[in-house]
Design a protein that fits this description.
The chain is built from 16 helices and 17 strands. By secondary structure, the protein is an alpha+beta fold. The protein has four domains: 2-87, Uridine Diphospho-n-acetylenolpyruvylglucosamine Reductase, domain 2; 94-211, Uridine Diphospho-n-acetylenolpyruvylglucosamine Reductase, domain 3, CATH 3.30.465; 215-315, Alpha-Beta Plaits; 347-413, Alpha-Beta Plaits (2-Layer Sandwich).
């Protein structure tokens, strides 16, 4: 098997030494681990097709891997050492940029930052915005990535015009179309977006481009509560509509971590329990966003929806304000035992979710520190939790499962989702079994069975292949 794989991809495209395979053996957070049989790094779609066909013939599992910035273990092989990791990092070409059609055709291993830079060079924007320099387009699409600008631009699936996919038997479906309109049957590309490589391997995509914002304004606004934050969001959207690009919640518990980590000053003269980062953008230079921002914030201050505000007066200051938001996640990574969570609720339910989930955390692990932060504009609040003072991190990790289940239960009770932007992978399979209606699990199982009857595509991820589990 290894010899045949080497014949397909060449010596450069095959890794067999454990040290060389180590980057593909664990995820970004070093929570999920697994040993690959080999790591295959194909150079083009033909090689991917031949590799998948060979694995299908041998009934060997194929685990597609991008930049591995997800939190659910979807790109990590199971511990058996009998699965081939299909790393797509060599397939990073930008095949075409069509400014008039406002789209770009890229291979799946192309880093997100390179797509953004290529778009910017033509005066356009590719708007997926999330942390992680290793993030790759294939992974973004396979997990239906979200990020900071979903409020304005939607999730990854809303930015895809066409796909090229290698199916589970090795055949290639070329759906690389630039069309904005087509009603020619089922929208097949949507099956693969968000499927985490469990139905096929995305090898290239046609992505929508949008006008680059020519005017931008950013503010950090202190608010009294999450409920006040929602009132402020409603005020901004009423006044500015789609110019509201991002609206991010920053709690005191997370801000203190970030300030300590970076050694920066408190942003406001007084300490506030809650802050929101507001980002506005518009393609027209004739739209006075600054005055609009000032007017909305002034009105919010007058009625008590806001307590204080800092408006960026330069690009340097704008980035400095964004650093308070981005620093939240980075600071938590360095805290031993920090529990990550990824749930979503209807925007109107955000305050109740934060209150009830925080109470559930306290009842399970007294003194644990909730850090509810993130995308309040689309309801995706990351209810992360830090270890209580005096408790060993290893003991807190033992409570992760109980805490996660409690947080997910609160989200679902409010009409929300147990997975907002990181998918199911392996870590949320139990949640899927608990919360997805049986008919949905059955439809997912039937789709998987139809497209991948041998269960070789990322086996053990996303959907139970055993009909008893359905």
């Amino acid at each position: 098997m290894i010899t045949k794989l080497r014949d397909i991809v060449g010596p450069r495209g095959l890794l067999t030494d454990p040290d060389d395979m180590a980057p593909w053996s664990q995820d970004l957070l070093k929570v999920h681990h697994g040993e690959p049989l080999v790591v295959v790094r194909p150079a083009d779609v033909t090689e991917v097709s031949r590799v998948v066909a060979l694995c299908a013939e041998a009934r060997i599992g194929v685990v597609p891997a991008g930049g591995k910035t997800g939190f659910c273990g979807g790109a990590i092989p199971r511990g058996s050492g009998q699965e081939v990791v299909l790393a797509l990092d060599r397939m990073r070409a930008i095949r075409d940029i069509d400014r008039l059609a406002r789209c770009v055709t890229v291979e799946s291993g192309c880093p997100l930052v390179e797509v953004q830079e290529a778009a910017r060079a033509t005066g356009c924007l590719f708007p997926i915005a999330h942390g992680g320099l290793s993030s790759q387009i294939g992974g973004n699409l396979a997990t239906n990535a979200g990020g900071n600008t979903v409020l304005r631009y939607g999730m990854a699936r809303e930015l895809v015009l066409g796909l090229e996919v290698v199916l589970a038997d090795g055949r290639v479906w070329n759906g690389l179309r630039k069309l904005r309109k087509s009603n020619a049957g089922y929208d097949l590309k949507q099956m693969f977006i968000g499927s985490e490589g469990s139905l096929g391997v995305i090898t290239a995509a046609v992505l929508r481009l949008l006008p680059e914002p020519r005017s931008r304004e950013t503010a950090l606004v202190a608010v009294s509560s999450p409920a006040a934050a929602l009132c402020l969001l409603d005020r901004f959207q009423d006044a500015l509509g789609e110019a509201v690009t991002a609206f991010e919640l920053i709690p005191r518990s997370g801000l203190d971590l970030d300030i300590a980590r970076r050694g920066v000053a408190e942003p406001f003269a007084a300490r506030h329990t809650w802050q929101v980062l507001v980002d506005l953008g518009h393609a027209s230079r004739h739209f006075d966003l600054r005055s609009a921002m000032e007017e909305v914030i002034s009105a919010a201050l007058d009625v008590g929806e806001a307590a204080d505000a800092i408006l960026a007066s330069s690009e340097v200051q704008r980035l400095a304000l964004w650093a308070f938001r981005e620093g939240l996640a980075l600071a938590q990574i360095e805290v031993p035992g920090n529990l990550k969570n990824d749930t979503a609720v209807p925007v109107s339910a955000v305050p109740a979710f934060i209150e009830e989930a925080s109470a559930a955390i306290e009842s399970l692990v007294p003194g644990a520190v909730p850090i509810p932060f993130g995308h309040v504009g689309d309801g995706n609040i990351h209810m992360n939790v830090n270890t209580p003072a005096g408790m060993a991190a290893v003991d807190f990790v033992d409570r992760w499962s109980d805490l996660t289940e409690a947080i997910e239960a609160v989200a679902v009770a409010h009409g929300g989702s147990f997975s907002a932007e990181h998918g199911i992978g392996v870590s949320k399979l139990r949640a899927a079994a608990r919360y997805l209606p049986r008919i949905e699990r059955e439809m997912m199982y039937r789709l998987k069975q139809t497209l991948d009857p041998a269960d070789i595509m990322n086996p053990g991820k996303v959907v139970a292949f055993d009909p008893v589990g359905v």
